Request: fold
Amino acid sequence: MDVALAPDAPDWISLSRETVDAVLDLAEDLATAAFAPHNRTADLNEPTFDGCAVTVLPEIGLALEKFADAGFLAAPLPRKAGGLGMPSSVFNACMSWFYAANTGTSGYALLTLAAGNLLAHHGSPEMVESYVKPMMAGRFFGTMALSEPHAGSNLADITTRAEPQSDGTYRIFGRKSGSPGVTTS
Reply:
């Protein structure tokens, strides 16, 4: 039976129990087959940086490629941005499989999802097209840069501002409270 949905209906309103069960089964299978096998190996072989490039285990890239191909990088993002609009309760249940299988590799996906979600909700249509869509496809990944590793990781103490530049970029300024003389620009 086809049902017309109101334009303001939530993205997830048409999800059936069968669909949710299938997505949870897919998460379990993918986490077990692609994330769990390299968990210990990744712990013993941390990423390296040679000054130009970061090197990670090939298995990490393969797992993340499968994660993106299965639609998990698009799943929680709103449909208006090209995502699947999966409710957070279902998506978080799916992610439990990945976190349990391999927290380290899951972190790459988590940071990408956070960056994509931020841009999907607050970015311009051009930003969504340029950055979010490649993130959902697994071509771009999000990251987090801590500018003051010596000062701890209390992110609540960090204040930043972004000033638009004439060329369309932004200049970022920031400081962590209580950290004398540390400013990023």
The first strand starts at residue 48 and ends at 49. Residues 16-144 form a domain with the Butyryl-Coa Dehydrogenase, subunit A; domain 1 fold (CATH 1.10.540.10). The two ends are 57 Å apart (CA to CA). Residues 179-185 have pLDDT under 50 and may be disordered.
